[in-house]
From TrEMBL:
<dbReference type="InterPro" id="IPR000600">
    <property type="entry name" value="ROK"/>
</dbReference>
<comment type="similarity">
    <text>Belongs to the ROK (NagC/XylR) family.</text>
</comment>
<dbReference type="InterPro" id="IPR036388">
    <property type="entry name" value="WH-like_DNA-bd_sf"/>
</dbReference>
<dbReference type="InterPro" id="IPR036390">
    <property type="entry name" value="WH_DNA-bd_sf"/>
</dbReference>
<dbReference type="Pfam" id="PF00480">
    <property type="entry name" value="ROK"/>
</dbReference>
<dbReference type="Pfam" id="PF12802">
    <property type="entry name" value="MarR_2"/>
</dbReference>
<dbReference type="GO" id="GO:0003700">
    <property type="term" value="F:DNA-binding transcription factor activity"/>
</dbReference>
<dbReference type="InterPro" id="IPR043129">
    <property type="entry name" value="ATPase_NBD"/>
</dbReference>
<dbReference type="InterPro" id="IPR000835">
    <property type="entry name" value="HTH_MarR-typ"/>
</dbReference>
<feature type="domain" description="HTH marR-type">
    <location>
        <begin position="18"/>
        <end position="62"/>
    </location>
</feature>
<protein>
    <submittedName>
        <fullName>N-acetylglucosamine repressor</fullName>
    </submittedName>
</protein>
Length: 387
């Protein structure tokens, strides 16, 4: 039986496709869009009109002639419209404006220590967003917020942020929307990094890739068959909380014991090194001491790499990706860390999968992740309104 939602889903997919083509190719005419997307002229025309009306595209005249008349070029607005990216994290938060083409207005990037309470967090961020919007005399189309935690994609409520408990059970997108009157969307940090890779980075032409963010938690975003893997509530890909140390493992922010997240991240290394030296050290301090030759972290680093490789091998076996992008500062600690980890991961994974999987450091940018999240959301919202 045909789903009653099918027509709007198809229209939504067409809008997304048109936007993706322009995101990956830059400035194009309507004819170029048809050629690159394989979509028919009337459908391209409808999708382009909806994107222009929503301010997600802009059109400019070109001196070049196309079929005897001046052509019009379609492009993503850089300065005529903006979106706001908000990064929530356990140590620092940031607010940044961006053009829709992913050009960050970095001179207006505001980074600040994470407030201690949820109400203060919402108040501070809303004020900073309004300041930014009022300062620039261009329309803001929406706000993309990322959080290092588990988000219910159906209602935008955070189930759990293991390293930022003040947001547990909260709905920051709805609360910030109330204070700013802007459309807001909340995306898991790992998902946003995958979106950034797919929208602006190396993943543009890829259908099957994984983004791992192992800086504080062990976040994974998966694109499979060109689609972001979501699951029933948007919680698919939670590799962080599989048990790898059933006996005597550290208690995880999720309440269980011995999760992968407690042993295979930058934060895990920081914890174990701090524990051995007997005082709280930050990652940067550890890095500095290691580089000066004043601290040997070989046992902790080897153990962290071992567990990271187990996680990467599991991801390869389960999803058979062509590429895995990893964000981690562990690789900055010594020249051989990345190669060592890759070798271990590949030797643990199934050969047919691992031999054709490229593992590389992520160039995904967390700010662009938030920006890609809101643009994706705005484009998705256009589908049903197209008739
Ligand atoms: Zn856990």
């Amino acid at each position: 039986m045909q789903s009653p939602h099918r027509p709007s889903l198809l229209r939504k997919m067409n809008v997304r496709k048109v936007l993706e083509v322009i995101q990956s190719q830059g400035t194009l005419t309507r004819a170029d869009v048809m050629r690159c997307s394989g979509i028919s002229a009337p459908t391209v025309s409808k999708a382009v009109s909806a994107l222009l009306d929503a301010g997600l595209l802009e059109e400019r005249e070109t001196a070049e002639f196309s079929v005897g008349r001046p052509g019009k070029l379609l492009q993503l607005p850089r300065f005529s419209a903006q979106v706001i990216g908000v990064i929530l994290d356990w140590d620092y938060c940031s607010v940044v404006a961006s053009g829709l083409d992913g050009h960050l207005h970095e001179d207006k990037l505001d980074r600040f220590k994470t407030p201690k309470s949820y109400s203060e967090l919402i108040e501070t961020i809303s004020r900073k967003i309004l300041d930014l919007v009022e300062k620039e005399e261009i329309p803001a189309l929406g706000v993309g917020i990322t959080v290092p935690g588990l988000v219910n994609s159906n209602d935008g409520r955070i189930f759990l942020a293991s390293n930022l408990h003040i947001v547990d059970g909260q709905t920051p997108a709805a609360d910030i929307a109330n204070k700013t009157n802007l459309e807001c969307i909340l995306v898991q940090k790992s998902t946003s990094l995958s979106l950034s890779e797919k929208t602006y980075g190396a993943g543009q032409a890829m259908d099957d890739f994984i983004n791992l963010d192992v800086t504080s938690g062990f976040g994974m975003g998966v694109f499979t068959g060109g689609q972001l893997l979501d699951g029933q509530h948007g919680l698919a890909g939670e590799i962080a909380h599989i048990t790898v140390e059933p006996e005597g493992g550290r208690v995880c922010g999720c309440g269980n014991q011995g999760c992968l997240e407690t042993v295979a991240t930058d934060l895990a290394l920081t914890h174990y090194v701090s524990q051995r030296v007997g005082k709280e050290l930050e990652f940067d301090t550890i890095k500095e001491l290691v580089q000066k030759g004043e601290l040997d972290i070989t046992p902790e680093l080897d153990r962290t790499i071992e567990f990271l490789a187990i996680g990467v091998a599991a991801a390869i076996n389960i999803f058979n990706p062509s590429n895995i992008f990893i964000s981690s500062r562990l690789f900055d600690l010594r020249d051989d860390v990345f190669d060592k980890m890759t070798e271990k991961a590949k030797s643990r994974a199934l050969k047919p999968s691992s031999s054709s999987c490229e593992i590389e450091r992520s160039k995904g940018n967390k700010y662009l992740g938030a920006v890609a999240g809101i643009i994706n959301h705005l484009a998705n919202g256009l589908g049903p309104r197209l008739t």
